[in-house]
Structure formats: structure tokens, C-alpha cells
Amino acid sequence: MGDSVKRLGPAALALALLGSFVPAAAQELSLSFAAGGFRATDDAYREIYGSGTPWAAEVWLKSRGPFGLSAGFGRISQTGTALPLGEGGQEYPLKFVRTSIPVTVFYQFDFMTVGLRLGGGICFHSYREDWQTVDLAYDGRKAAPRFYAAATWTVAPRISVFGSAAYDSIPTGAGSLVAADVNLGGFQFMGGLSIRIF
To answer: C-alpha distances in angstroms, 122 versus 3, 31, 78, 144, 169?
Structure first.
């Protein structure tokens, strides 16, 4: 029961923030879906898992002015191999899953049918690494800053396509044989579709 409450905590916070924002100043509400690529900044992470393909869904609320608020849900799942440090060592297949719940504010510049958003906020991450051939797993949770830029292009009255770039730094405080403090963050590049609700 306690773990379930902890998992729902960030999502409940995001919904509460959005709920208080909507009646106060919301002018536009849109829902977006995106997928793309991820490049970790940690060398050890890249060596084990390489690049990844995250996906995300977000709710965007823009005020009557240039400011807005967004909250969403993202996920990335990767497989990799723990390589032996010496000759003849055993290799271990790994699976890594990270779930992210960002809550951010943004400033939007509008140019005809194109909008440019610059934003930042906090992102709640939960992650788990499973060693698939042995009884070993690591998991954790971390709240960390997120910064991003996004561009949207309206192609129909309620439909837009967009691209975005985001940066997360997620130091775990956990070390390994190849890194003193493993950082799960990096750069995320995504593209997708946005549907305007009102």
C-alpha cells in the first residue's frame, strides 16, 4: 500500500497543479503524443545500453499571456549487457526501465502558425535495472530538474506537429565498478502530434 501511494504522489501533484491552473487562466488546452531518441550523458550508461527510444504523453495549458504549464508521463525501456572487466568473464543481459513525470512551466513565442516554447521545471523519475540471468535488481526514485525547448506547427485548426529537445540530469548517488556516481540523465529528442481540446 505504501509503495502505491508513493508512486501516485507525483501524478497527484501534477493533477492538482493543472486543476488549479485551468479555471484561473487557461486559454488553450492540448494533448500531445511523441516518441524519439535518447542519448545519455554518462559514458558507462551509453556503453551498456547505447541509445534509447522514449515515448511520452503530455497535457499543455497555455494562459491568456505567453506563459503556460505542462505535465506528462514518459517511459523508456532498454536492454544491454554488463561486460566483464577481465578476460573470460561472464556477460550478463540487463533490462532497464525508467518512468518520468515532468511538471514544468514554459514561455511561448508565437509566429503565425508556429509556436516556440522554452521551459523548465521538475521531473519525478522512477527506475529499475534487472539482471535477467541472476537474482539481482536495482531500483530507485529521483526528483530532478528538466529543461526543454519545443516548436509546434499548426497544420489544421486543432492539429499541430511538433519537435522538442529536453535535458535531464539524474544523479543516482550509486556507484559501480566503472562509475563513481551513475547519472541516468541525458538529452531527449522527440517528435509527435498535438491535439487542441479548446
So the answer is: 21, 19, 23, 6, 11
Tell me the three cell numbers of residue 46: 551509453
Q: For residues 76 and 111, give the distance between their C-alpha atoms in angstroms, rounded to a whole number.
A: 33
Measured from the Cβ of residue 59, the count of other Cβ atoms closer than 10 Å reads: 18
* Domain covering 2-196 in this structure, CATH number: 2.40.160.20
**What phi, psi does 14 have (nearest 5°)?**
-60, -45
How many residues are recorded in the chain? 198
Phi, psi of 188 (to 5 degrees): -125, 125
Task: Quick: pLDDT tens for 58-117.
Answer: 999 998 889 999 999 999 999 998 876 655 667 889 999 999 999 999 999 999 999 999
From CA 11, how far away is CA 138, in angstroms rounded? 23
Tell me if the pTM is above 0.90: no
Give the C-alpha separation, 32 to 37, whole Å: 17
Question: Higher model confidence: residue 189 or residue 48?
Answer: 189
The C-alpha angle 37, 39, 45, rounded to 5 degrees, equals 130
Alpha-carbon gap, residue 77 to 52, rounded angstroms: 7
